[in-house]
Amino acid sequence: MATGTNRLLGHLGDSVPRLEDPPLITGKGRFVGDINFPDQLHMRIVRSPFAHGTIKSVDTAAAKAHPGVVAVWTSDDIADIPPIDFREGSNPALALFRQYALARDKVRYVGDPVAALFAEDAYTAEDAAELVVINVNELPVLLNADDPPQDFKDGYTTEAALVEQAYGDIENTFANAFKVVELDVKIGRHTGVPLECRGAVGRYDAARDIVELHGAAKVPHRNRETLCRMLDRPASGVHLYEGHTGGGFGIRGELYPEDVLVCAAAMRLDRPVKWIEDRQEHLMAANHSRQQRHIIRAAVAEDGEVLAFDDEIYLDQGGYIRTHGTRVANMTTGTLPGPYRIPNYRAVCHFRLTNKTPAATYRSPGRYETTFVRERLMDKIAVEMDMDPVALRRRNLISLEEMPYWRDLDVLGDSVEHDPGDYAGLLDQGLARVSWDELQAELAQRRDNGELVGAGLSMFFEKSGLGPSDGAKIFVDTTGHIEVVTGGASLGQGFETAMAQICAEDLGTDYRRIRVVHGRTDRIDYGVGAHASRATVLTGSAVSKTALKVREKALEVAAELLQTPAATLDITDGVIHAKDNPTGPSVTLGDVAAALAPAAPTRGDRDPYLAAEEWFNIEHQTYPYGHHIAVVKVDRETGEVKIEKYFIAYDIGRAINPMMIEGQLVGGLAQGIGGALYEEFTYDERGEPLSVTFMDYLLPTLREIPIPEILLTEDFPSIRTPLGIKGAGEAGITGAPAAIASAIDNAIGIPGAVTQMPMTPQRLKKIMDERLG
Amino acid sequence: MIKKMDINLTVNGRSHAVSVAPRKTLADVIREDCGQTGTHLGCEHGICGACTVIVDGAPVRSCLMFGVQADGAEIRTVEGLANGNELHPMQRAFTEHHALQCGYCTPGFLMLATSVLEREPDISDDDLLDVLSSNLCRCTGYVNIIKAVRAAAAEMKEG
Q: Which of A141, A451, A558, B144 is the most exposed place for a label (fewest CB within 10 A)?
């Protein structure tokens, strides 16, 4: 046993290696592309080459005649299947704008699925798909959300919703303001782009009358509900299976047309159906995200207090409304004030359809965009008020004394109540860590010597732990091994390790003796999955509660077996012993499990098995916080931005595995840099996507990513979770574009120069050519 | 029907006599005909490097090569990196330094880094970073991949 050794058992706070790694580093992982069933068919989607048009005909005859093709479907073949519904349930106000699995009547973006072709192998399917002819009467293409809306259908326009959140008195505050500062900024269209494209394998098991969907991710239980409604089946007759998943970032795992098609085809064609997306498809078919324009103004008092924000937002939703409904608009309008007081507030979001790929959430939805907008605005206010940008921020930060700080805003059905945190205190720590004043002096010196170098700061608050509830089941077997069954999901972030560490802490065992189940609707009836930085917070809290219940039962039984009061016992590395005598009489968790077998006389009148199931309910989300600092160097000739230094400060509340948290922060930062400088979906005037390869859509390589310094603090454990945990998934990305934009302004000496992301070399060179001469 | 060709590949020391269409990529042959699914496809146009394998001692993007072009070749994939249960230093370094999250790009990085260090044990750090910048990772932000490869490079050099 471990007593007397330094071996880490993987308890809370230990940066132990991940349980997930062994199969992944040896090529033994099972991703959706690795799943095959005998006699399976391969599906290929025929996608619209037109951005907008009325479908005249879809000619499938030549494709059907191609050897090896088994069936070709158009929307007529699945007329009974309704459009894909919203993840959180029906919403009559938005229902009209949903997407069918195959386009009906109209196509609304290049990439819109029009036909599904099923063939004996994937190469044949791809060949034959080219024989399908789509005839369309082209319609005017709408490519900008800030252009006037068009007719959508039945008298409805492409402004599908107007999402508004407000409090206080906007009109009077602006009328009486010392100064009004205005800003017009754009966030580009980009998205998660996991390295594994999507995939789905549908299988109908007639022996058990069960439809199986392999390749599920993120929210398998929610998707099962939607699928059941669409296919008119009971939940017990549909099972989703999450295997290894090659990254998600919000976009993977939502219910897409292809998921519905493989399930329907598996039943109707009576053979398993496999679909693996290629990269070109992925970049025009999987959810895009982000694209917004904000026309915002701030009312400022003479001393720099920001009295009000008033924001008009144009959100480019693309062709349809997918599973998220208007959640991005809700999070955008609900989180814009960030860590500042802002006593009066109004945000109006024009949620508009265009003829581009449908959009939804990507890591830090709403916060990435609003942090850019808000921090750009704070920088501009500082310039116009002739104040130091740090001093301006300090003037407006919510103070520790005001916490928990409630404001009349809604984020995903939860009113915003910041849990306690010292925003200014962490800023002090961060500025000290980077020697901010010395850094400014050093950069000024370098600028005097002709270099275009500068630093920028962005502050943010995050939201995590979306509730309201989650549960877990734990079972200890007679060998002392433990299975934790959750309704969580893992897109690669280390969920299994995190859950095992929480369970290991509470049960006093080695985390390597714990197996964590996730993403399996056949193992647990409920689950909320992995999104909104919620998995560790919510599912982790449920696991902790359940593990403590198991512990209590184990100690109670051990007390009888050892004839020692339970209160005097402890568990170390799976062995129950007297606290004051670790090497004395003991029983193992396995012994206790055996003593609780149904027929064991030691069980008494207790429920059999060393097992438990518990629920955790959270009152509000948790709101972790931090800031980013970037130092950049700009090349005057090319417009290239090189990030010389990067710093992230973040209060996590309580770290389960600091190594994994830093991994989340750095990985998020890389994506934030991508969105700030490189990644963008562009279209020509006919709506043809121009970014459908990795030569056009530029992911950062390791040459573009700095080695950041991270200050991870545990100063303010969340008051909303028993372990004090707050989420870690999104903080690395949230502050990046704002800090980089500020640093670029500083480097080129033009305050407010950057009003658009990504700041590509072409754009930055144009700004410098026009304004630096 | 497209006429298939008979080829013989050695994958991780095991001989595979397979009959494949001439247009089938090496990646698909390795995955489907040789059953070694550890090699992953991330873009199928030679940018991401997830499909990197070692062909006759050189790192190759197996999505850009046809299976028939590898007839008679010695191929090493991620499944052949460990020696039985003993992990290769590169694999051990990846887990110790948390150089993977979802693990999808990992086989490509492992094979690229291993191959380069086998060919050029004294490669400069700057050149090593240049080589590694030819593969894409979307989860880690690369920092830990660099740490892991540097650590493994030192260990491989010591032998």
A: A451
pLDDT at residue number B1: 63
Residues A79 and A111 in one domain: yes
The pLDDT assigned to A225 comes to: 95
Judgement on whether residues A612 and A637 belong to the same structural domain of the protein: no
Q: Which domain holds residue A350?
A: 292-465+620-771
Residue A414 lies in a domain: yes
H/E element holding A447? helix A436-448
Rounded CA-CA distance B145/B137 in Å is: 9
The C-alpha atoms of residue A705 and residue A421 are separated, in whole angstroms, by 30
- What domains can be seen in chain B, in order of their start residue? 5-80 (3.10.20.30), 89-158 (1.10.150.120)
CATH number at residue A351: 3.30.365.10
List all residues of chain B from 19 to 78 with a beta carbon under 8 Å from chain A: 21, 23-24, 31, 36-45, 47-48, 50, 77-78
pLDDT in tens, B92-128: 999 999 999 999 999 999 999 999 999 999 999 999 9
Cα A344 off chain centre by: 29
The residue in chain B having the minimum alpha-carbon distance to the alpha carbon of residue A24 is: B103
Which of A18, A127, A701, A709 should one mutate to test binding to chain B, selecting the residue with the greatest count of B CBs within 10 A?
Answer: A701
Asked if A279 lies within 8 A of B106 by C-beta distance, the reply is no
Domain annotation covers residue A145: no
Q: Which residue bears the tokens 């454990």? A: A717
Which residue of B4, B54, B90, B104 to mutate against A (max A Cβ within 10 Å)? B104
Which residues from chain A sit within 8 angstroms of residue B47, using beta carbons? 693-695
Q: What distance in Å separates the CA atoms of residue A500 and residue A497, rounded to the nearest whole number?
A: 5
Query: What's the pLDDT score for residue A2?
Result: 38
Domain boundary (A584, A617, A650) is at A617
What's A260's domain CATH number?
3.90.1170.50
pLDDT of A593 over the 70 cut: yes
How confident is the model over B53-99, as pLDDT tens digits?
Answer: 999 999 999 999 999 999 999 999 999 999 999 999 999 999 999 99
The chain-wide mean pLDDT, for chain A, equals: 96
Angle subtended at Cα B53 by Cα B52 and Cα B56, rounded to the nearest 5 degrees? 135
DSSP 3-state helix, strand, coil percentages of chain B (rounded to 5)?
40, 20, 45
Q: Inter-chain contact B141–A705, Cβ cutoff 8 Å?
A: yes
A666–B107 C-beta distance less than 8 A: no
Residue A595 sits in the same domain as residue A625:
no
**Which residues between 108 and 147 in chain B have a beta carbon less than 8 angstroms from any beta carbon of chain A?**
110, 129-130, 132-146
* Residue A415, pLDDT above cutoff 90: no
Same structural domain for residues A459 and A480? no
The answer to whether B23 contacts A21, with C-beta atoms less than 8 Å apart, is no
| DSSP-assigned letter for residue A321 | -
* B133 closest CB neighbour out of A17, A249, A703: A703
Residue A168: which residues within 8 A CB-CB, separation 6 or more?
A: A308, A343, A344, A345
Using omega within 30 degrees of 0 as the cis cutoff, is the peptide bond preceding A404 cis?
Answer: yes
Note the maximum CA span of chain A: 90
Residues A749 and A726 in one domain: yes
Give chain A's domain count: 3
Predicted confidence (pLDDT) per residue in A263-291, tens digit? 999 999 999 999 999 999 999 999 999 99
Residues 6 or more apart whose CB falls under 8 angstroms from that of B126 comprise none
- Reported as a pLDDT band with limits 50, 70 and 90, residue A602 is very high
Q: Do B142 and A668 touch (CB under 8 A)?
A: no
Other C-beta atoms lying within 10 Å of the C-beta of residue A475: 17
Q: Check if the beta carbon of residue B147 is closer than 8 Å to that of residue B97.
A: yes
Joined tokens for residue A333? 């309008």
* ipTM for the whole predicted complex goes beyond 0.95: yes
Catalytic residue numbers of A?
Answer: 730
**Half-sphere exposure (Cβ direction) of A187: Cα atoms closer than 13 Å:** 32
